[in-house]
Every structure is written in structure tokens, then in C-alpha cells.
Amino acid sequence: MESFFHTLKTELVMHCDYKTRDDARASLFDYMEVFYNRQRRHSSISYEAPLPFEAMQSPGKVSTVRG
Fold first, then answer.
1. For 15-64, what is each residue's pLDDT tens digit?
2. What's the maximum distance between 2 C-alpha atoms anywhere in the chain?
3. Dihedral sign, CA of 6, 8, 11, 16?
4. How far is CA 47 from CA 25, 41, 53, 57, 62, in A?
5. Global pTM?
6. How far apart are CA 48 and CA 2, in angstroms?
């Protein structure tokens, strides 16, 4: 958990100047749901990112990204 917050601070928060809490919430949501959860490597799936891992598991299927 601590490594997540370190990554969050160094990759996002330190580079932004939020005017409102809503701006901060929206930015954090985008970072966590769009970037961090989809592109970071997960130890539970052999240190692959989720989308490439799913593509390797079913090579005949076309993957769609749901938001």
C-alpha cells in the first residue's frame, strides 16, 4: 500500500496544482482507474499489465476497453 501512495505522489500529485477538491478527485480517479489499474504490472498475473495479459490468454479475441 505504501508503494502505491509513493507512486501516486511522484507521478501525479507533485506535478499538479488543484484549484478545488473536485479537480483533485477527478484527477485521482482518472489516474487510478485509467492508468494505474490498467497499465501497471500485477504480481498476481506474472507481472504483466492486465490488457496484455488478457490478450495473451485469449489470442483469438479482440479486447475492448470498458470505461
1. 889 899 999 999 999 988 887 777 777 777 888 887 778 778 876 665 55
2. 46
3. negative
4. 28, 5, 9, 14, 22
5. 0.54
6. 21
